[in-house]
Specification:
The structure holds two protein chains of two kinds. Chain A has two domains: about 1-245, Thiamin diphosphate (ThDP)-binding fold, Pyr/PP domains (Rossmann fold, 3-Layer(aba) Sandwich), CATH 3.40.50.970; about 255-390, Rossmann fold (3-Layer(aba) Sandwich), CATH 3.40.50. Chain A contains 13 helices and 16 strands. Chain A has helices spanning about 10-20, 35-45, 60-70, 80-85, 90-95, 120-125, 140-155, 185-190, 215-245, 275-285, 305-310, 330-340, 360-380, and strands spanning about 1-5, 25, 50-55, 75-80, 100-105, 130-135, 160-165, 175-180, 205, 255, 265-270, 290-295, 295-300, 315-320, 350-355, 385-390. In chain A, α2 links the parallel β2 and β3. In chain A, α1 (about 10-20) runs parallel beside α7 and α7 (about 140-155) crosses α9. The termini of chain A are far apart. In chain B, β3 (about 50-55) and β4 form a beta hairpin. The longest helix of chain B has 5 residues, at about 40-45. Classes of the chains: A alpha/beta, B alpha+beta.
Chain lengths: ~400, ~90
Amino acid sequence: MVRLTLTGNHCVAYAAKLARVKVVSAYPITPQTTIVEKISELAETGGADMKVIKVESEHSALAAVYGAATAGLRAFTATSSHGLLYMYEIVWWVAQARIPMVMAIVTRTIGPPWNIWTDHHDIMSLRDSGWLIAMAENNQEVLDETVKLFKITEDPEVFLPGVIGLDAFILSHTVEPVEVPDQELVDSFLPERRQPYVIRAGEALIMGNIPSDLLANFKMREGVHRGLRNAEEVIERVDTEWGKLTGRYYGGLVECYRCEDADYLFVGAGAWVGDMRIAVDKLRNAGLRFGVLKIRYVRPFPYAKVLEAVRGRKGVLVFDRSISAGSAGPIFLDVTSHLYFSKLKVPVKNVVAGLAGFDVSYEDFSRIGEAFAKEVSESGWVDSSLVFYP
Amino acid sequence: MKRADLILPLSKPKIGVQGITGSWRIRKPVINYGKCVGCGICWLYCPDSTIEIENAGSRFRVSIDYTYCKGCGICSSVCPVKAIDMVREV
């Protein structure tokens, strides 16, 4: 193990090398570019045995690594924002083909207007596609979760691709001290690549031809959903194993901060969870018992864990850094729909904040939390389910 | 183990899987071997692999499998010496 000062993007690159990725293809886009730059450097002079394929677009980048993955190799790509939208067709193709692979999304606002700062609209566009979606809070988690995703996605109970989301600049370009595990440790953790089938030259096999049986096609869709549900258990298992090897266990699908005796909960995903933690400490100093429920995996959505964490609270504030325009924030929609299934009645408010990279500080979270606690204690409920902040 | 959920969109190629597609044809490609130079371009372009090819000295000898040829006419269109005529059948 070595301790290095690394940006989030360089953590992704080191993780790909540690996972012994064989093929990388990507197209440059801010703020993702330094991931592939670092990977190219590691491939050229850093001793990584991998091939980096230059392409003319993100559509081709994902198609190239999907091809490599289908042919039996561990493959990786990374993108952001418009790049992800450009590869969107292949995103679905990979998941429905049940090909495990890993991608990093440096979350960035979608234009117009052109904007390179973080929000989560790009990564949230993946939530119906069949990919696992992990969200990191800090650079250590970026590195750890990227390595783990190879093991999780290649598990026979899952066999689906996965993304690691990291916030633009807040993580991608910010340097933090990070423990980089030894290659031997990762080798002992990651088994040989497993996948449901391999297409080899000289062996005729067709993937994705027009189905003669629509019910089988229907069941493939159901299978993708079930694969994601199976992933819940696999994520917990792999995180536990990683925790034993490195001392860093993250809580599996969710992480709770000062939840045990909390009256109120912040719920959120991504880098701003760090600010929520500070806000919780401040609010507790002021006599308000808050906690944070960090959503580490948006897909599979950890509804059982969420229900467990939410049960018995006086109120829950769900922060979304994106909005399903015309409805509400996607994390809020997942939280509240599963509350309904379970017949739990807890006041939940949705705060849509940080869009277009508009900064949200721990002071903002404290302010919102204080007002929310007041509203709930006075009225026993919340008067509006969705607010934009500011 | 929940692997049974894994239904894959895989298939293997098989001759005639869509039936006797030669019955779809209204025009039939007929090779004029007097003009044919044996370049093999028709074989390369045929979208249904119904042109058979074999080595004949320095050139190829091509023939058409009328059981599956749909009569699309691409071979006739790409032939550089216009050695494939489309003959009306129906």
